[in-house]
Design brief:
single chain; about 625 residues; alpha+beta; nine-stranded mixed sheet; six-stranded antiparallel sheet; about 20% helix; about 30% strand; globular; disordered N terminus
């Protein structure tokens, strides 16, 4: 790939000499081999967009100026900032050379556009900036971007002045915990399962010259059954232009197709070499925009011939790769680096991480086959994963984890990014005040009489213990047919019995027995601990545990925690008995509110049941998807 030979020297000459002198790596508890060999003069030098490669580009990673900010700041135009930071590493990371956190930041540096780029449009790309950023070129704002995990670009051509140094300034605002934006496991107070935040620029910043009319995006869909690849090349203005696509296996041309832009066309790939984790073969492709015989734009890309599908075998839906069942396992790779937090020290570190992950998967697969296991549940990721053979979930949609989207930011953010609702879970609550108990009390008595059932109520924990193993067995039986359900084993039963059952108020555990004293249902409710957890501020000591104990005794709300009903009785109204029993307890204890566990929006039967209790929506959880 062609690079600007004098680029690094030129960039360093444009920056104050004090930058190199002031930056030093900070101490970190864990050092990797890549962190030890880190070159702050040339961090992450690799081309940052392997799916759409152009030959000319300029890497702006390296030394930048920075300072903390306030909401009242003016743009620090033509002003040397007080701090020095290595981009693209979050300011909290050791590789940044800073290891501090600020909600508001300013970044600044200068650059020069090569004379060879004259007559081109100049694009400025940011791989990721967490969370809100505003970019200024020579004092002119190019726009505000919100979102810490997606790339964005600006055409800065019209803001460039002359041929000398150009100034870029980036304003960053990252409230982390206080606004409700997607933040993963970031927190300003790391503990437990929450980790260091990653404020500011944390992916490569780079410049790219393009023609007035250029490839803006492309989409490729392989079809191994037909031996074809469907391609669509997009551009803002296709007037008078055609696209020439050439698929290659190494140096061998598979097919060259001339087609229209902004429309799908087909490339034949006969006798395709299929991509698989064992043989991750990738074809190369060049995309050339033509105006007659003149080349207007040219990019390089790659594709794999693979098919991912689902097939139901018996009652189980399984994942198939290339029409073959694939055994899956998903290791938890949280993507945090000791020195870089979200950002790896180098591309070699990323590749090594994937190679180790693949080795672990292979070992677990061997173990699974040895024990006659049925499947593995798979990993997720992008880019290098194609090349080393990791199968990426999310091939047809990019799913977000279940999200508390009642924050003001979530809905508009995901919809602006092209996401649509996939599933919605509704959590409701209702007040015990004003409920007429007579209908469900009558239903409870009728069902008890019809099936010769009785309920067990407790006031002492020791009286519950003889039934706990039966309760866990019933739990396993109740949920056995749910996909991905893992039954509780004997070790877990003993642990839960010792650690948790004794903590629950015995009056909140209910068992339903048949005439032969066989347990056919159970239910557990818990006091509402939300307020107690807020008071504890996430810490049990010194006084957090006290708040939880107080809530256990005096909370005015309960949460339906778990219900299990043996399959034989799951459609026979047993919930009426359970609710009747809890109504009596809650009435006696002055409980005011009941919070239901989340239910799928389309579960109309359960929603129709609860509407008789003046149930109202408390929270919603939504999963999003996006067609890629």
């Amino acid at each position: 790939m062609k690079r600007i030979s004098s680029k690094i020297l030129l960039l360093l000459l444009l920056l104050p000499l004090s930058i190199m002198a002031q930056w030093t790596p900070k101490l970190t508890p864990i050092k990797t081999q890549w962190g030890k060999n880190f070159d702050a003069n040339n961090p992450l030098p690799e081309y940052p967009r392997p799916q759409m490669v152009r030959t000319d580009w300029m890497n702006l990673n390296g030394y930048w100026e920075y300072k903390s900010g306030t909401s009242a700041d003016t743009v620090p135009r033509n002003t040397t900032l007080s701090g020095r930071i290595v981009v693209p590493y979050a300011i909290e990371s050791t590789l940044s050379g800073v290891v501090k956190h600020f909600d508001r930041l300013w970044y600044r540096r200068t650059f020069a556009v090569p004379t060879a780029w004259s007559g081109k449009r100049i694009l400025l790309h940011f791989g990721a900036v967490d969370w809100e950023s505003e970019v200024y070129i020579n004092g002119v704002s190019k726009g505000i971007h919100k979102g810490g995990y997606d790339a964005f670009s600006y055409d800065i051509t019209d803001q460039l002045v002359g041929t000398g140094p150009q100034e870029v300034i980036v304003r960053v605002f990252d409230p982390t915990r206080d606004y409700g934006q997607p933040r993963g496991k970031q927190t300003t107070a790391p503990s437990g399962a929450m980790y260091s935040c990653s404020t500011g620029i944390w992916q490569t910043v780079w410049l790219e010259p393009v023609a007035d009319r250029n490839v803006s995006s492309l989409k490729m869909i392989p079809d191994i059954d037909k031996g074809t690849l469907t391609v669509r090349v997009n551009t803002a203005d296709s007037t008078g232009l055609t696209v020439v696509a050439t698929a290659k296996d190494g140096e061998t041309i598979i097919q060259t197709v001339t087609a229209k832009l902004n429309k799908s066309f087909t490339v034949s790939v006969p006798n395709a070499k299929l991509w698989s984790p064992d043989s991750p073969f990738l074809y190369d492709m060049t995309i050339v925009l033509k105006r007659g015989s003149e080349t207007v734009d040219s990019i390089g890309t790659y594709f794999g011939m693979r098919k991912i599908s689902r097939k139901t075998v018996g009652s189980v839906t399984k994942l198939y790769l290339n029409n073959q069942f694939v055994f899956q396992m998903g290791p938890l790779d949280q993507g945090y680096w000791p020195e870089g937090i979200y950002t790896a020290p180098s591309d070699a570190a990323l590749k090594y991480d994937i190679e180790v992950t693949k080795a672990l998967i292979n070992k677990v697969e061997e173990l699974g086959r040895k024990h006659n296991m049925d499947h593995m549940e798979g990993p997720m990721g992008f880019s290098n994963l194609d090349k080393v053979g990791i199968l990426s979930e999310g091939f047809d949609q990019l799913g977000n984890m279940i999200t508390w989207y009642s924050q003001p930011y979530y809905i508009t953010h995901f919809e602006q990014l092209g996401f649509v609702k996939e599933k919605e879970y509704i959590e409701s609550d209702f007040s015990f005040k004003g409920i007429n108990p007579e209908p469900f009390q009558k239903a409870s008595e009728l069902i008890k009489k019809r099936y010769e059932l009785r309920s067990l109520n407790f006031t002492k924990t020791k009286d519950i213990m003889p039934y706990v193993d039966k309760m866990f067995d019933l739990f396993n039986e109740s949920y056995a047919k749910l996909q991905s359900f893992v039954p509780i084993n004997d070790i877990q039963k003993a642990y839960f019995k010792k650690k948790y059952i004794s903590f629950i108020n015995p009056e909140y555990i209910k068992f339903i027995l048949d005439k032969n004293d066989n347990m056919i249902a159970f239910a557990i409710v818990m006091p509402g601990f939300a307020q107690a957890l807020r008071k504890a501020n996430g810490k049990l000591f010194p006084i957090g545990f006290y708040h939880l104990l107080q809530a256990r005794k005096y909370s005015k709300e309960i949460v339906f925690y778990l219900i299990g009903i043996t399959p034989e009785y799951q459609s026979k109204g047993i919930t009426a008995i359970i609710f009747d029993e809890y109504y009596k307890v809650c009435l006696a204890k002055g409980i005011e509110t009941c919070i239901r566990t989340p239910e799928l929006e389309e579960n109309h039967a359960i929603h129709n049941l609860w509407k008789h209790f003046n149930s109202k929506i408390n929270k919603r959880r939504r999963t999003y998807k996006k067609e890629l």
